[in-house]
Specification:
- By secondary structure, this protein is an alpha+beta fold.
- The chain contains 17 helices and 23 strands.
- The strands form 8 sheets. Strands 11, 12, 13, 14, 15, 16 and 17 form a 7-stranded mixed β-sheet that branches.
- The protein has helices spanning about 25-45, 70-75, 80-95, 100-120, 125-145, 155-165, 175-190, 265-290, 300-310, 320-330, 385-405, 415-430, 435-445, 450-455, 460-475, 500-520, 565; strands at about 5, 10-15, 20-25, 55, 60-65, 145-150, 190, 195, 205-210, 215-220, 220-225, 235-245, 295, 315, 335, 350-360, 360-370, 375-380, 410, 480-485, 490, 500, 525.
- It is about 45% helix and about 20% strand.
- Strand 7 (about 190) and strand 8 (about 195) form a beta hairpin.
- The structure holds adenosine-5'-diphosphate and magnesium ion.
- Adenosine-5'-diphosphate (ADP) binds near residues 47, 48 and 99.
- Magnesium ion (MG) binds near residues 98, 164, 167 and 396.
Length: about 575
């Protein structure tokens, strides 16, 4: 493979021995096959009747989920084209939070349909052009069908939050959880000339297994999964003055090996006394500022704890950096890096700081903060795996509420907008010249992969359902979709299954970009695995690149003999 012959039959060696190359059709077929496999994996988990996946990592840790992005992240794929699908689920997750499975299913369908055109000798560039135009049109059609809502209309936001939970394990608790999610987002949303922005990092999500999902709650303030450091401290402080400290209340240990020679007990005592004196000075600075609560990002020495306790100060150590930022925002305190800089003006405030028992742990709750926009969602569920999945579902739900607040337009769910756009594109395709038309038609077929998958996963007949859906939509009932829970075709809006326009747009853009990128590849060259890059060296080959399909594994089997090829 690595050597290519010239006309005079002289082999010209371009690639190192062991490198693998696949070209043209071969490369395309191979990439499409890999992407299709990825789409097939997540396909069965789409929609409210979708199945969950159990993923076991190399350490034996088990994750059970039906979240597309999580599934693909955990399975750690190696094929370069498959990796691109994993990436779109990741970007979709970051951009809009929901729709990760749909994006991958759509990309897989786009590639599958493109393959049938490639077999008919349609050049990939033409397919790519057709797809790009269709994607743009699809987004327009989605825009047309979308309905504007009031950005902070709680009733609509609740429906949107609930729809995103319909496909998750938390469906049964979606009323209660949606209420919490919407409350949380509304309380952190900022309004700027009629437009809202939401930073969901302002919402702290803490989870603890034990109890049931019903026990989940929203706390107006910040919850720290840490306990008070010393039992002599008050476990409750009202009208607290809070110091946020990012330096250890400990004596710095020397970095280098230093020896202190102590020859008599007197010296030992004065050494310890000196240490105590230094710690006392530190604590005095804290006391001097007027703080009644100390939240420290670093450690607090036993002696310092003792002095703080004596002064009646409540202290917590090793608070996470992200929590320090949230606390600063919530309480109005400034994070202080040097105790000499700690003054009264740097302190924040909260009405109530107290330690509460959460299952077997003790956590510190900082409530009634100066800045009312700080909230924590405290998630509970019977077991660790369940509470992990609850957290993922809550993330999706928070994101969709954010999405509509920022772009207050909604569409129906249940495959309704996808079918609508598909029908419109099929009509519009007729206006295209030549083979691009074929590509546009395939694009609409691919869009229908979403309703097809929803029907299939619900045990409905996919083809019958889709034709029924299409014919009703053509009659003008544009909110018609597949009501999976009732196993029939119906009006999704009256069933309160609504989703943000932003999610649907993102699915179309992400999927078509990935599909086009994969289609444009006609040459895959994988350099040989080097026998052993120096440990920690960057830029080594991604593992398994050598195992490119179509070539027997081990073809690049030069492992252990670095550069031998060059010497022969
Ligand atoms: P994704 O990761 O793409 O969000 P989901 O498994 O959450 O995947 O499934 C989302 C799809 O399920 C969307 O197309 C949505 O409209 C649809 N859906 C959600 N609830 C219902 C329902 N009750 N009936 C029909 N479709 C639904
Ligand atoms: Mg979803």
């Amino acid at each position: 493979m690595a050597a290519q012959a010239t006309k005079a039959n002289m082999p010209v060696v371009i690639l190192k021995d062991g490198a693998e190359q696949s070209k043209g059709r071969e490369a395309q077929k191979n990439n499409i096959a890999a992407a299709k496999i990825i789409a097939e994996i997540v396909h069965t988990s789409l929609g409210p009747r979708g199945m969950d996946k159990m993923l076991v990592d190399s350490l034996g840790d088990v994750t059970i989920t039906n979240d597309g992005a999580t599934i693909l992240k955990e399975i750690d794929v190696q094929h370069p084209a498959a990796k691109m699908l994993v990436e779109i689920s990741k970007t979709t997750d970051n951009e809009v939070g929901d729709g990760t499975t749909s994006a991958v299913v759509l990309a897989g369908a786009l590639l599958e349909h493109a393959e049938s055109l490639i077999i008919q000798d349609v050049h990939p560039t033409i397919i790519v052009d057709g797809y790009r135009k269709s994607a743009k049109k699809a987004k327009q059609f989605l825009d047309d069908i979308a309905e504007k809502i009031t950005a902070n209309d709680k009733a609509s936001l609740l429906k949107i939050a609930k729809t995103s939970m319909q496909t998750k394990l938390v469906r049964k608790n979606s009323d209660q959880l949606a209420e919490m999610v919407v409350k949380a987002v509304l309380s952190v949303a900022e309004k700027n000339n009629e437009k809202y922005t939401v930073d969901i990092d302002d919402i702290k999500v803490e989870k603890k297994s034990g109890g049931s999902i019903n026990d989940s709650a929203i706390v107006k303030g910040i919850v720290l999964d840490k306990e008070i450091v010393h039992s002599g401290m008050p476990n409750k402080v009202t009208a607290g003055k809070i110091a946020l400290i990012n330096t250890a209340l400990e004596i710095n240990k020397t970095e280098t090996d230093a020896k202190i020679n102590i020859s008599n007990p007197q010296q030992m005592k004065s050494f310890l006394d000196e240490e105590n004196r230094m710690l006392k000075t530190m604590v005095d600075k804290v006391i001097g500022s007027g703080a009644t609560v100390v939240l420290c990002q670093k450690g607090i020495d036993d002696m310092a704890q003792h002095y703080l306790a004596k002064a009646g100060i409540l202290a917590v150590r090793r608070v996470k950096e992200s929590d320090m930022t949230k606390l600063a925002k919530a309480t109005g305190a400034r994070v202080v890096n040097n105790l000499d800089d700690l003054f009264e003006k740097d302190l924040g405030s909260a009405e109530l700081i107290q330690e509460k028992k959460v299952e077997e742990d003790k956590w510190v709750f900082v409530e009634g903060c100066k800045h009312p926009k700080s909230v924590t969602l405290l998630l509970r569920a019977g077991s660790q795996r369940v509470v992990d999945e609850v957290e993922r579902s809550i993330h999706d739900s928070l994101m969709v509420v954010k999405d509509v607040m920022e772009l207050p337009s909604i569409v129906a769910g249940g495959g309704s907008p996808e079918t609508y756009a598909a029908t419109k594109i099929r009509n519009w395709a007729k206006s295209l010249e030549g083979r691009e038309q074929l590509a546009a038609e395939k694009f609409s077929d691919a869009l229908e992969a979403i309703p097809l998958a929803l029907a299939e996963n619900a045990g409905m007949d996919p083809i019958d359902t889709l034709t029924n859906l299409r014919s009703k939509q053509i009659k003008g009932e544009k909110w018609i979709g597949i009501d999976v829970m009732k196993a029939k075709v119906g009006n999704m809006k009256t069933s309160d299954i609504i989703e943000p326009l932003a999610v649907k747009q993102q699915i179309v853009s992400a999927a078509s970009e990935a599909a086009c990128m994969i289609l444009r590849i006609d040459d895959v060259i994988a350099t040989a695995k080097s026998a052993g890059p120096p440990p920690g060296a960057e830029g080594g080959m991604p593992p398994g690149m050598g195992g490119m399909g179509g070539m027997p594994p081990g073809m690049g089997g030069m492992g252990g003999m670095p550069d031998m090829g060059g010497m022969m």
